[in-house]
Specification:
Structural class: mainly alpha
Number of helices: 14
Strand content: 5-15%
Oligomer: single chain
Order of helices and strands: HHHHHHHHHHEEEEEEHEHHEEH
Helix content: 40-55%
Shape: extended
Number of strands: 9
Strand order of the largest sheet: 7-9-8
Length: about 325
Amino acid sequence: MSESLFTVVPCVLGCRALSGNPFPSVPGYLTCEPCTERLRVDLREIVDLYASLDDALLPGAGGATAAGRGAPGFASRSPVRDSVLALTDARTQAGEDGDPLPVLDVLSSWVDNLRQDAGMVPQVSEAELNDALRLLGWLEWTTRQPWAVRLAGPVAELHERAAALLGVNRRTVSGEVALLLRWLGFITRQYWVGDMAAEVAELRRQLRVAHGLVERTVPVGTCPTMVVHPGEREPRPCDARLRARLTSDRITCPSCRAFWTRDRWEQLGHALGSPVSDLASISAWLEVPVGTLRRWRSEDGWTRQGSRNRPLYPRTEVLVSWQRRRGSQARPA
């Protein structure tokens, strides 16, 4: 009876039934049961992967697919894998899609968001704030008084109690995840659950890559398949991000599940507008030295476009060369 009071909407996490139609959410929520369970599993796996991250810090850990390309020649090298270290460093800032994210800080930001929307942040009156600021202003004088040592204990205790109340004392990945899991029913009714699920999935992916559990992929563009998006009537491009694996002969859209086998990659390239890049951009994209790319270009006969000063090459042709030579080095997921 009560379920009829809720409007059933398509799951905001973009999942689709086998028919291709958007999967409905649970009445009163914004996500369906499978997506909610996947979010729960992702959060739990993050805790386990992060706890053993120290094992993946040393160069060579995590398998060949996670090691990445080192500096050529006699350049100075870090004694640890910087890409893994970035996952634990609060100063890490992601500039582009796929850049490392600071795991604890990302989770803590969503916990702070949850506390704010759920009303768990205590309100401090203006009088209490003024008293605290006044005491802070006399802090230097207070520390010179003979009775200051007796004040240190109670102040430290108050600090611990306040930090515990706010949930910011000794923040840990396991602690933040535990709170998110406990409030998952509330979270899946919030408009920001889609953004949170996307970041959680990316954290899980990066941690799996650090442990060598996922073979490396490269971005190839956005899905051009025409689909009807939730809340709309007219079809438009799916626009989900497409990535290619080293050992796969097909590229599959993670959203609408459209796929392109190797013999249709040229067709996909035309649908994407035949993206082309110079050797420097391709080197950064694939983490392959420019000299190696020149050899591949000569051996495979890439189509040359652009100008004489800045030649450009179709990424679909480059991708085939990359898979042909590096696919045998990859370890299946």
